[in-house]
């Protein structure tokens, strides 16, 4: 059975989400927004029909984006119907199940390597500089949100300390950016972009390394397209599964 998360169940949901990349995405939003915002909604699936069994999945919806953290055995039929009822054809970000063709890769940092110096990378720069890089990458397979939505989201997350961002510059201009979402013991690399005219110069690698330096002691994950597999393996990431969106 699926029930909206309240104050009685929030600690159980936080514990359930730990150590999981999808859970990190959900928990970073939950810690930033709480459970009382109409645009940030959180649910839990329980075994049994009275919501008194064990928690088997946690679901979030932030505006029009839904994420599912489901580990072990869970009611896939109920979950799929819930997603369909809430999101329709848009669907939700979740782990690929056995036999499914995934949209992309889930990767985890196994053993850090290629740790180049990133001392000249700015951590938590102006949000407008991060967005400026993202805008330059529009149309290259990089989805760019509306500025107002992105800016307000970053304000919430920075206040809650559930995000770190980074910028690399050339001649003072921002040319590469990155960001990680943070939860208890886990980090998820969510943005890595470089202005097309400045690619293959090492800027994106510097940004990734700077963020990994700040995530020392955490389990670090990312989700990417298969075409980026080789780029991330050079840092020490390995593929652990796939995602559906």
Task: Give the secondary structure arrangement, pairings included.
Layout: E1 2-4, H1 10-17, H2 21-33, E2 40-46, E3 55-62, E4 65-69, H3 76-87, E5 94-95, E6 104-109, E7 122-123, H4 127-136, H5 147-160, E8 163-170, E9 173-183, E10 186-194, H6 203-214, E11 219-224, H7 229-233, E12 237-244
Parallel strand pairs: 10-11
Antiparallel strand pairs: 1-2, 2-3, 3-4, 5-12, 6-11, 6-12, 7-8, 8-9, 9-10
Notes on the protein architecture:
The protein is α+β, with helices and mostly antiparallel strands. The chain contains seven helices and twelve strands. It has helices at 10-17, 21-33, 76-87, 127-136, 147-160, 203-214, 229-233, and strands spanning 2-4, 40-46, 55-62, 65-69, 94-95, 104-109, 122-123, 163-170, 173-183, 186-194, 219-224, 237-244. The strands form two sheets. The protein has an eight-stranded mixed beta sheet, sandwiched between helices. Helix 6 (203-214) links the parallel strand 10 and strand 11 (219-224). Helix 1 (10-17) packs antiparallel against helix 2 and helix 2 (21-33) packs across helix 5 (147-160). It starts with a strand and ends with a strand.
């Amino acid at each position: 059975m699926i029930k909206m998360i309240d104050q009685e169940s929030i600690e159980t949901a936080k514990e359930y989400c730990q150590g999981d990349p999808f859970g990190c995405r959900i928990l970073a939003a939950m810690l930033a927004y709480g459970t009382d915002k109409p645009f940030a909604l959180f649910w839990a699936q329980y075994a049994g029909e009275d919501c008194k069994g064990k928690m088997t999945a946690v679901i979030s919806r932030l505006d029009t984006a839904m994420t599912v953290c489901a580990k072990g055995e869970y009611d896939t039929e109920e979950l799929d119907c819930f997603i369909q009822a809430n999101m329709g054809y848009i669907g939700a970000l979740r782990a690929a199940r056995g036999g499914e063709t995934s949209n992309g890769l889930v990767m985890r940092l196994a053993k850090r390597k290629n740790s180049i110096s990133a001392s000249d990378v700015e951590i938590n720069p102006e949000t407008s500089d991060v967005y400026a890089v993202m805008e330059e990458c529009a149309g290259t397979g990089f989805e760019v949100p509306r500025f107002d939505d992105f800016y307000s989201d970053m304000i919430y997350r920075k206040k809650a300390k559930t995000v770190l961002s980074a910028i690399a510059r050339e001649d003072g201009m921002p040319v590469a950016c990155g960001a990680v979402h943070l939860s208890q013991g886990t980090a998820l690399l969510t943005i890595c972009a470089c202005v097309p005219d400045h690619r293959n110069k090492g800027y994106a690698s510097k940004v990734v390394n700077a963020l990994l330096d700040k995530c020392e002691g955490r389990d670090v994950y990312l989700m990417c397209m298969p075409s980026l597999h080789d780029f991330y393996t050079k840092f020490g990431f390995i593929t652990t599964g796939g995602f559906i969106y």
